[in-house]
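User: I've been trying to design a sequence by hand for this structure and keep getting stuck. Would you show me what you'd pick, starting by listing the structure so we're on the same page?

Assistant: Good idea, let's start from the same input. This is the structure you sent:
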């Protein structure tokens, strides 16, 4: 059993190392991620988020998926903070570079959930995760794509949080043989729009 645990731990570490090598890679050859980015750090709460983008490539482990994760942590961004179901929310908005600016391609619905801190061999904060099929280059045309993840946590009186930019990837038809257009030099504007309803209204509590 000990040998099996060591093998699983080594495999997990390899996956994490692979993901970290592509964070902020532009353009990326695999998933592009920004992880555990702090979007709010107040006296009673820290909010962090992950943003990711991927597109389908033949003969590779890939998919047309945008990712958004939200975490609530203790002040100073320490360990995961427990919040009830509905007190945290994540949303993924996929942008496409049109040659001069970033334009919204598709947006997921809000994903609500609880938050906390996991234990065991792989401890860490957890919260609602949005895994959104954005449709690939066919959705809005071939080009550079990236995700803005909106990460928010309710502190009892207001939503606290903000947006995380994943970085970008170039998505096109497998038959595309032409040269790529110039890469973007700017990132999308963050709007940091919180979820439309707070937890008490969502649950009908008074």
């Amino acid at each position: 059993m000990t040998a099996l645990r060591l093998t699983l731990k080594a495999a997990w570490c390899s996956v994490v190392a692979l993901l970290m090598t592509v964070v902020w890679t532009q353009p990326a050859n695999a998933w592009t991620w920004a992880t555990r980015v702090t979007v709010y750090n107040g006296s009673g709460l820290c909010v962090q988020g992950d943003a990711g983008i991927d597109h389908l490539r033949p003969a590779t482990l890939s998919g047309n998926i945008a990712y958004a994760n939200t975490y609530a942590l203790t002040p100073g961004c320490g360990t995961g903070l427990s919040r009830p179901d509905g007190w945290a929310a994540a949303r993924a908005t996929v942008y496409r570079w049109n040659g001069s600016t970033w334009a919204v391609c598709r947006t997921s619905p809000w994903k609500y959930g609880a938050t906390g801190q996991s234990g065991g061999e792989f401890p860490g904060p957890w919260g609602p995760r949005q895994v959104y099929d954005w449709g690939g280059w066919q959705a809005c045309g071939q080009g550079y794509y990236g995700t803005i993840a909106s990460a928010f946590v309710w502190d009892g009186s207001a939503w606290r949080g903000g947006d995380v930019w994943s970085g970008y990837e170039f998505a096109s038809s497998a038959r595309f043989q032409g040269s790529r257009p110039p890469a973007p030099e700017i990132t999308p504007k963050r709007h940091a729009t919180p979820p439309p309803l707070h937890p008490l209204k969502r649950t009908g509590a008074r």
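That's my pick for every position. To get oriented when you compare it with your attempt: The beta strands are 32-41, 46-53, 65-73, 83-97, 102-107, 111-118, 124-126, 129-133, 143-154, 159-171. Residues 97 and 184 are 7 Å apart (CA to CA).
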